[in-house]
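Re: the request from the purification team.
They wanted to know what the chain is likely to look like in 3D before they choose a buffer screen. I agreed to run a prediction and write the result into the notebook, where they can find it.
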Amino acid sequence: MRHTTLVYLTLLAFLFGGCGQKDDQQDQQQPKLSVEHQENEPQAQSELTLLPVEYKELKNWYRDELMEAYPAIKYSCEQILKEKTAYLSNTEMKIPTAAYRDVCEKFLNTEIDTSAELRFFIDKYFTPYLVLDKNNPEGKFTAYYESSLEASRTQSDRYPYPIYGKPRDLIEVNIGDFDDRYPNQKIFGRIDEEKQKLVPYYTRSEIEKMDLPAPVILWANDLVDLNIMQIQGSAVAYLESGEQVRLGFAAHNGRPFTGIGSILLSQGLIDKSQASMGAIRQWLKKHPDIAAREMSKNDRYVFHRIADSLAPVGAQNVPLTAQRSLAVDRRYIPLGALLWLETTAPDSTPIQRLVVAQDVGGAIKGIVRGDFYWGSGKDDVLEQAGKMNAVGQYYIFLPKTLEVKDGQAQ
């Protein structure tokens, strides 16, 4: 059912994030899209609004090669069928998992071979909604990519920098395990034996100076490339033996992320014309001593694992699809949701295409905010992904079984 009025989903801010219901209570109910209101909780500073639209309002909808997004949809649907939560990804926008699961089952059991057939399927089972933040559809869209670096299985003068796996003393606490009002809200720390309490985990500068209780999975030859891999979350490691090893995200230390571009700008070391990732990488490599000092000011440290997938794996635990996967703020946008993205590439080419929310990022915060996965590669991909910083908007596709009215589905 299509609607011509604005549908308001007013989100509430909580101490740690969104609120949830117990799965065994909600799985028996009919699908409802809702936002739960908790008494005595402060109002959020931002308001998520959904405006139902017609498909003809989506720019390039009838020309997009939708089959390029088919693998991404397939991966996400297979993952959604495994979800046991009442609401998809347990975001503050409560999309019943059962509603998306029903459509995913139909998708996986339907033979779809062309973009036209996929377009027909989406049109049949979904309604597009423009996502707004306080009635503003515009937000910031950047890009990321799978980086590369040179590495070795053994330490040497040429390969002195450890690539750590997840530390043995890193503790991850899901707040939702203690209070189901706060699903998907986590803190990270370690046990201070002397104080017998959980304390924040070591910062980047502390980790770089200590003998960390963590496995070293490889040794890198360049500190700048190691840092860029941590920013991107994954990389292809080219070993001195000629092998190629894919490194994926394993964990992080829970500390705040500060972009190296922001650090260099704040210190007056570069100007705005040098603020693309490609230019920053070149600057850092030309000034290794300054680079080491300034990069250590980013407290966030990412740990990796050797991945056996053919592509990097995102936060939804599915392989990412180049230029069809989007990192979002999971507080608002559920992982696995289909989105229609409208923004601009660094060369001013319009990006108007179907994407799937499959990843998150430390700097990806906000209702209308996305990080476009550009793909894998070296400097050519970095040049494109690193320069992207555009204004754009997106639409979310909700199953038509959800009748949205007055902020709740009936």
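For the purification team: Residues 7-142+316-409 form a domain with the Barwin-like endoglucanases fold (CATH 2.40.40.10).
Please add any questions underneath this entry.
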